Amino acid sequence: MTKVVHIVIVKFKPEVTEEVKQQAIRDVIALKEVIPEIINCSAGTTYTDRSKGYEHGWVVELEKEEHLPLYAEHPSHLDFVKQYKPLFADLIALDYVY
Q1: Beta pairing class for 4-12 and 88-97
Q2: I want to staple 38 with a disulfide (CB 3.0 to 4.6 A). Which of 20, 32, 91, 97 is the partner?
Q3: What CA–CA distance (Å, rounded) separates 78 from 87?
């Protein structure tokens, strides 16, 4: 069966506190509890200097391609985006199947 991986890496704006950054990580991981299409989720902070300023990222795994729009449009995901996207200086998202 084909699975979908949704990867997001972000640069927060300079004024965003470390506390808020860590809360974003906790909040994205918590999406697994409320969005049934998520089969796995991880998030964290880079520990190397290879990230070109992108300091936080998360990976969301979904069961099949049809689940990506369900995840993207889920009210809890939309709430997360509404709360945190204004705090990002930049964001890269990548989706692939395997």
Answers
A1: antiparallel
A2: 32
A3: 15
Q: Model confidence over 30-82: pLDDT tens digits?
A: 999 999 999 999 999 999 999 999 999 999 999 999 999 999 999 999 999 99
Describe the chain by its helix, strand, coil percentages, rounded to 5.
40, 35, 30
pTM of the predicted model, to two decimals? Answer: 0.93
- Domain range annotation of the chain: 4-97
Determine which helix (DSSP H) or strand (DSSP E) holds 73, and give its type and residue range.
helix 67-73
Three-state secondary structure call for residue 48: coil
The domain made up of 4-97 has a fold known as: Alpha-Beta Plaits (3.30.70)
> Is the separation of the CB atoms in 43 and 57 below 8 Å?
yes
